[in-house]
Amino acid sequence: MASRRHQRLALATAATLLTLTTVVGCAGLDKALDCVRTADAIATSVGNLQQAVSNASEDITQASESLDEIDRELKKLDDTTDNADLSKAVDDLQEGVTGVRKSIEAGDATPDITPVTDAATEIGKVCSP
Questions:
Q1: pTM passes above 0.90
Q2: The predicted structure's pLDDT at residue 11
Q3: In the Cβ-directed half-sphere of 2, how many Cα atoms lie within 13 Å?
Q4: CB under 8 Å to 103, separation ≥6 — which residues?
Q5: Which residues contact 12 (CB under 8 A, 6 or more apart)?
Q6: Distances (CA, A) of 42 to 21, 22, 27, 58, 114
Q7: Cβ atoms of residues 104 and 63 within 8 Å
Q8: What are the Cα distances from residue 19, in Å, to 4, 39, 98, 101?
Q9: What is the spatial distance between Cα 63 and Cα 103, in angstroms, rounded to a whole number?
């Protein structure tokens, strides 16, 4: 299921890039492309997190690594945006990542990652035209 979600996001990303080239000026295009690229990277990291949580009985450290990837992408996105909706979605995703990380550290091998997936979806929406 995560693979299909990632495929849909990749297709939406490609469509967004095509649309952006005709709608936005160069400076705006660069910023929008950064948003789309980072949203795609976040989607990939969330997909990795979903896979890691479903395989948690084998190796929970994969989930921690996925959370680290999401943190890195959030830092990039937060540094490049001044959009209030995007900032809120980034904050929500960071809060979700923190919650999942605390659950893992407390020994929960199957933490609820719904807040992470919901916030990542919102970032995808905000980064689309």
A1: no
A2: 52
A3: 17
A4: 111, 112
A5: 124, 128
A6: 22, 25, 23, 23, 15
A7: yes
A8: 22, 16, 34, 36
A9: 11
Q: Which amino acid is at 128?
A: S
Per residue in 82-114, pLDDT (tens digit) is 778 878 888 898 899 899 889 988 988 788 989
Mean pLDDT estimate for the chain = 75
Question: φ, ψ for residue 74 (rounded to 5)?
Answer: -65, -40
Structure tokens at 104: 């893992």
Burial of residue 116, with CB atoms counted within 10 A of its CB: 0-12 exposed, 13-18 middle, 19 or more buried? buried
CA-nearest of 43, 98, 99 to 73 is 43
The pair of structure tokens assigned to 10 is 């990749």
Dist. CA 77–CA 73, nearest whole Å: 6
